[in-house]
């Protein structure tokens, strides 16, 4: 009897580990040259693509600041799409010819419903690096600012690009964003 319970507990842990592994996701870098068609969880081709566009209140921001915006999704499939993710389906990050941030996704399971028609998903765009290191800069990472804050991006021209947890929507063109000096230390 004890052996059977130990076997059940081990089996339960194995099943839980597999479920957690299946809920994790890796980053998907948006590509404007290879638009994607949305797929349902059953991976059936949809009759019409879903598209997206990025809405930002400004095309200029100060280094170390952030601004709120939206990813507007147009679901022309005629039906609701259910997809899994964690906290959010989309991120908008600033990139440049010399800066390509790491895209991180949390690994929990939450179901999202993308309704037919137009819907909006809030995003925050940051004019700071996405990673830093304590102490001196090393391995290509900038040193963190006091209290672990991210260092500001250098002034210049960046591109607000859409990243998504899965291939859900056609990727819109990136928006040009000018980052100005912050006067911060």
Structure write-up:
This protein has a 4-stranded mixed beta sheet with strand order 2-9-8-5, with no helix packed on it. A 3-stranded antiparallel beta sheet has the order 1-3-7, with no helix packed on it. A two-stranded antiparallel sheet has the order 4-6. Helix content is 12%, strand content 32%. The chain has one helix spanning 2-23; strands at residues 50-55, 60-62, 66-75, 81-85, 90-95, 110-114, 117-126, 156-164, 175-180. Residues 1-48 have low confidence and may be disordered. It contains 1 helix and 9 strands. It is mainly β.
Overall shape: globular
Structural class: mainly beta
Q: Can you count the beta strands?
A: 9
Distance between the termini: 66 Å
Biggest sheet statistics: 4 strands, mixed
Q: Strand order, biggest sheet?
A: 2-9-8-5
Instruction: Please write the string of helix (H) and strand (E) elements.
Output: HEEEEEEEEE
Strand content: 25-35%
- Proportion of residues in helical segments: 10-25%
Number of helices: 1
Which residues form runs of ≥5 with pLDDT under 50?
1-48
Radius of gyration over alpha carbons?
Answer: 20 Å
């Amino acid at each position: 009897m004890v052996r059977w319970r130990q076997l059940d507990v081990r089996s339960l842990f194995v099943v839980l580990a597999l479920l957690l592994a299946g809920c994790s996701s890796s980053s998907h870098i948006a590509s404007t040259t290879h638009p994607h068609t949305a797929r349902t969880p059953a991976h059936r081709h949809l009759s019409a693509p879903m598209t997206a566009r990025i809405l930002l209140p400004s095309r200029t921001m100060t280094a170390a600041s952030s601004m709120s915006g939206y990813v507007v999704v147009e679901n022309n499939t005629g039906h609701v799409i259910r997809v899994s993710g964690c906290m959010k389906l989309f991120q908008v990050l600033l990139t440049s010819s010399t800066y390509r941030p790491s895209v991180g996704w949390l690994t929990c399971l939450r179901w999202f419903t993308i309704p037919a028609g137009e819907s909006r998903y809030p995003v925050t765009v940051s004019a700071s690096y996405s990673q830093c290191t304590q102490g001196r800069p090393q391995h290509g990472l900038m040193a963190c600012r006091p209290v672990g804050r991210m260092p500001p991006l250098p002034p210049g021209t960046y591109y607000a690009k859409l990243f998504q947890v899965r291939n859900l929507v056609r990727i819109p063109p990136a928006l040009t964003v000018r980052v100005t000096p912050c006067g911060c230390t």
